[in-house]
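tool=predict chain=A
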Amino acid sequence: MPVRSRTAERYARALAAALVAVAALLLAANAAPVDATPGSPAPASDTAPAPDDLAAATR
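tool=predict ok
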């Protein structure tokens, strides 16, 4: 039968796992495609419509 670990040990492992998860999420969020050039604007088809277009669409 396995020996039950102490509460402090469980909290320490949970904290370490949470830190690893946050680090992985931050690295994934900052990952960019290899062929992307920094500072290049988005293509016009990927941008949001102008505010006037939105107002006309909701009427």
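The chain has two helices and no strands. Residues 1-32 form one domain.
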